[in-house]
Amino acid sequence: MIKSIRGVNFFMKIWKIIKFFVYIISAIMIAIFNLEIVENLKYLIGFLMIIYGLEPVIIHFATRKKFTEHTKFYWGAIEILLGFVVLFLVSDYATICVIWGIWSILRETHEIEECVHMFIHKNPVAVISLVESIVVIVFSITLILEPGEHHALIHVYLLCAELLTTVTLPLLEDLYLKQKEKNKK
Question: Fewer beta carbons under 10 A from the terminal one: N or C of the chain?
Fold first, then answer.
């Protein structure tokens, strides 16, 4: 376990670097093998939910937060559980699409909440993030209403864009905040 604030900061920096490369490589691989992925959608969605769920769980334990503190630990635990359900208990393609669509909408509501906080601090990166969230929600609704390979393929392409923006938008935000701080001086 990480014992100090310095250790937590070091862990978070290493985590951001690892996450950056994993997400970029994943986006490229998903784009290349999109048709194979759509045919085997349950594996992508199941593993994706588990991976997305592991992040807040790992961060929770690594930063030694209490279970009574406001964290995303419980959300992560539910994502992991749902990922295993998709992998081992769901076989119907339409059901997988519906679960994916609902999960995407719920994830994007968290993103919209973060956008609101960025808007409060007049952060222009919020506009890009908000547009991305709205696009994902709209396409998720179509995935729920008409579950099938066509909409799943569109959602796979959206996933590539989402993976890329998930790791690049925080970099843009950091650059914006550094520039803002520099301008204050």
Answer: C
Q: What is the mean pLDDT of the chain?
A: 88
Sequence letter at residue 65: K
Are 102 and 86 spatial neighbours (Cβ–Cβ below 8 Å)? no
C-alpha span between 44 and 37 (Å, rounded):
7
Q: What is the pLDDT of residue 82?
A: 96
Of 139, 141, 137, 152, give the one whose Cα is nearest residue 42.
Answer: 152
Helix, coil or strand: residue 65: coil
Section 155-171 average pLDDT: 91
- Give the closest residue to 48 by CA, choosing from 166, 147, 137, 133: 166
Element (H, E) at 70: none
Query: What mean pLDDT do residues 5-22 have?
Result: 80
Q: Give Cα separations from 43 to 30, 65, 73, 86 (angstroms).
A: 12, 31, 23, 8
Residue 105: C-alpha distances to residues 2, 88, 101, 143, 144 (Å): 33, 23, 6, 11, 10
The pTM of the full predicted model, rounded to 2 decimals, is: 0.84
**Residue 155 CA neighbour count, 13 Å, CB half:** 31
Residue from 126, 155, 118 nearest 38 by CA = 155
Is 50 exceeded by the pLDDT of residue 2? no
| The amino acid at 17 | I
